[in-house]
Amino acid sequence: MAGCKVQLDFSDSRCSSCASHPYYIILGLILVHYATLSMHSQVTQEKCKVNEISSKYEHCGLHPDGVRDLDCFTKNPWSKLRCMWKPGKHASKNTHILIIQPQKGNYCRVYKNINKSREEITFYKNHYVTIQIFENSQSKNCTKAVFQGSPESLQRCDPPNYVKFTRHSGKLDINVSWDQNDVKHIMSYSVRYKALGSLQWNESPGMSQNKTTCRVENLNSSVAYALQIHCITNTKCTQCPWSEAYTVPSEVTSQPVIVNFKETDVANEKGTRLVSITWKVSARDLHDGYIVTIGKESGEAPIERIDTIQPSITLILSYSAYSVSIQSFNNVSISPAVSHIIPLREDMDSMGDDELNVTVHNNTSFNIYWKDFLLKKYVCYCAEWREEKTKTAYKSFYLKGKNYYTFSLLKEPLKPYKRYTVSLHVRPNKDTCNMKHLNNSEGTFASTKFYFMEGTPVSGPANISSYNLTQNSMVLQWSSIPEEDTRGFLLGYTIHYTENHLRGTESENNITVDPNVNKYELKDLTSGTTYQVQISGFTSKGTGKRSEPNFFTTTQEGSFKFTSIIAAIAVLAAGLIFGPPIIKRAKVVLWPSIPNPGKSNTMQKIDRPCELELLEVINTLKAEEWETKSLHIIEKEAVGPATILPAMLPLLCGLDKRGDSPGITCNWIQTETDDATGNTSPNNTTDTLLETQQTDLQSFPFPFPSGYTTMEMFQHVMPQSITAVTQDMESDPEDADLTVFNPKPGLDYVRQFSTSPVSDSDHLSTIL
């Protein structure tokens, strides 16, 4: 128990010594273990004989999946030989054996326990050497790689350690730098390239004119390329391996397009504005970002470059004018720039009255002074002045305790009769009055205009006109005098007007109006009077040139009634002249005229001499059966007297001319009874019928309502006429057959007749 108490007593030194002893033992074991590992991992070298090595490793062979790509070189003649290789894909251990042997002799040197893919070795500088690297030497799967070379061919110059590409207009500019040990031996270099994804390198590699720059031409701007570089071999650089393949992206060729420009005032910050610009680029261009370059239109430094990856930018600027350019870029090219001018704020002079004043001494010196409250806050200022539509001049200065500054010995002398604008900008940065950055670095305090020398206007207002003319007033309107013609600050306009009489010009009246007025009403004029009007502008130096004379006449009393009467008469006359043709034309379009029945084709044929022949034929009419193209009468029926037959003759005769066959005429009726009846000649019968035709028509039981004979009227006539014919046929049973030929089918006024099969009760029928 006492021993336990001693071990638990931390104040006893013996207990502390006993407790710490196991820790020392453990630490010693760890050190021994790491020492053993380091001895096994340390590369060892020893001499060997070629025949022994050959027999020991004769089972090792070359294999594409084994150790490979052995390459050896030296950086200078007095340095060791560096060997590099690629290990096998299926190596069980990352240790290799390297053997170097000269071309002559049976001796060699072996390096063991190599656990890296490179090694520096001592070589035979006067002999051609063979170097072998073995992997898995104790296994049946042992592989090897072989390198051979002479000492004079082993000095290598590495590929460049820095490369920069620049593309533009189908060209590629290359700028390289080399290792400091190689640069003194390299005289030039060459490149080869291919389209990205292609398998074949360009057969015509480019060559530099010096050791740093090279240009490749005739490239496709929209194609990305792979490119390699190596030095040109010489006696000091016997080995110049190709570099790794660099990827050169396609050229950025599309110009950005500004899609939005917005300008707003900054709250609680007098003389500053918030400017926002947004743009877009073509989707086919691969870009990494954008370059925004901004500078003052006056040319004052700095011209600031801002890089951004967003297609927009927001700046806080003064009221001065600025120039902005925007470009897209990738790591090899920059697109064409789009430029935009941020205009000068034209309303600067409205920022306050008398805050900035100018006193001109001569054409090379003037003085500006401002409100003294700025003295407490600012010591750095910049003044800009310019003539309209010319470049701005500027001067930045440091001033403490004063509120005025004199500009002298101007580079560009002030011109007489020209208006100048001067602006004063304040800068909060007190370290330097020259701006380091443009964004949020200054504000505009005030602006004003001045002349070195004033004059009178050289022209009057233009486009003088009048309206609202009454008996005793008129309103005049005109355009302002152009600023370049005022030659001073315009103080107003003078309207000169007089009554214009044949006997001469009366006394002139003058009225003065403010310079911002461009119309004025003249009152208390005389009715029916012509006035001559001229307008001129005036400055502090006097009245300028008048405008050309203009003449305006007031209205007379009762002129409105007289004018109304004239207008009414003019409207009435126009109605009388143009009214009837318009009404007639409207009637033709809206109510077409009805044809005159008296001029119909049927009525024109009524008077033709064919009634008698038709009557004779009907007297001997005999129907024939089954004739579909003609009319056969097969039944006799007493309907009415035969005296109405002549009334239908003109209708039947009219059918004769409606057909298309030229052989059918009024003589289309043939009968054998003409020879049998000799009592009455055909000519006499015809004459008789012609004489009695009008009487029969007047006594016709179905009088026509008009002179226009239609088909419906013909249907009313036919039954009685046929009855008359049948009565005559009963008295002469020996009558020959009667054939009535049908006109062309499809007639509008005369329908076709057809017969049904023969029967005892056959009736005459009509069909369309």
UniProtKB/TrEMBL annotation:
Keywords, comma-separated and alphabetical: Disulfide bond, Glycoprotein, Receptor, Repeat, Signal
SUPFAM superfamilies (alphabetical): Fibronectin type III (SSF49265)
Entry-linked CDD domains: FN3 (cd00063)
Domain of life: Eukaryota
Domain Fibronectin type-III: 159-256, 460-558
Matches recorded under InterPro entries: FN3_dom (IPR003961), FN3_sf (IPR036116), Ig-like_fold (IPR013783), Type-I_Cytokine_Rcpt (IPR050379)
A cellular component annotation (GO) from this entry: external side of plasma membrane
Xref: Pfam families: fn3
One function term, GO molecular function aspect: cytokine receptor activity
Official protein name in the record: Protein sidekick-1
Organism: Maylandia zebra
